[in-house]
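Recap from last week: sequence in, structure out.
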Amino acid sequence: MDTAVTLPLRPPVPEAPEAPLRVRPFLRAIRTNALTIWPKSAYREDYTIRNFLGRTNVLLNTPEAIHHVLVGNPGNFRRSPASIRILRPITGEGLLLSEGDTWKLQRRTVAPALGPRVMPMLARHIVASTKQAVAKLEATAGQPIDLLFTMQTLALDIAGRSMFSLEMDRFGAQMRAMLYEFSEKYSKPHLLDMLLPPSIPAPGDFGRARFKKRWMKLIETILSARLAEPQPDAPRDLFDLLRAARDPETGAGFSPIQLRDQVATLILAGHETTAVTLFWSLIMLAQAQEEQDWLAEEARTVAIEPETGHAAMASLIRARAVVNETMRLFPAAFTVVRETIARDRAGAVDLPPRSVVMIAPWVLHRHHALWQDPELFKPARFMPDQPAPARFSFMPFGAGPRICVGAQFATTEAVLVLAAMIGRFRVTRTDSRPVMPVGIVTTQPDHAANVVLTIRDAPAIVG
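Predicted structure tokens:
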């Protein structure tokens, strides 16, 4: 089959400023849409550098510089105060925020629980949740649905089943409500969040602390419900694997608080990021019907069942290409921010101590020196007959030692869900209003985009 799209889609994006923003517009942008903080020149230059609030602030776009920060000398680049303040209430001291030896211990312990050998088990949970969701959507086919809410609900159910072997009917509504509250009230940085060290409370930290108590209590309630279930002899979910996990060097396992924080981290990272990836994938396909039909043809020849889901991944080549192209255009984690500890040099850029270093997948994935037609939705660029992206030009999950530990799980989930959805439904928009990406924690849509799902003439192959 020809891999070229006849009419490539150019998705709308917020207008980039002509020049670097001054302090007040910058602070307004990071609270309303952080995707607008980079000027137009950033998408063509190797780096942009400026003095901001008395500190060097640099955006890096070259492989050499990015390699140095994330791989070559990562110990000299710590998380920024704002990212710590914003994420700690919802992840605790889990893998996402830990540093130094604590991070190394956690990484060594968690990584095997999300390694290749457990993907068949996790794929079973993914497909079971998806089949149930598809059945519910069949009953409302032809009616407009809120696509983001639908994908968030499905992703949360997948997270619940994969983590706890629990359907999330009991806890899902409360979790979604709290995640929405977090996004609206506590995730938007203020000036003092960026200037004060994490050890000194900023005004917003008091509300975040109250939120953290309620959020962690909910996580503990879910853990209690899982522990009340009969305990199987063999691991059946991530919770079993994390409880049994031991540091291969020390033999140490997680304490109850450490286990709670790892669960909170995985729920956040594994639920919200995949939900928005699926949302953007389906929105793009709704506007690229030829691409959607090609994907449907592929999906309808593959058995996507709980016991065959993992094996099906090898045949879902176009689905993976669509997911990759979606993550290129709409990376859930749109920026990585680090702060230098000691003086350093990344590529051609000198970095004084406490420099703010940004590596922005949102910019990197649209950089004109790295991609042909970077503004266009062209899944064919990720097909096997095309050259692989340049090193450090495509990094939706980060890179280096701190690359997302759940990257394989997230990709497996997105590919299987997308193939199952498109194999069963034709997706169309209900209106022509552009869906604009907004960067607040993740790359969200600016409004609830409704779509209509129409059942295709024949169902996908069912094993």
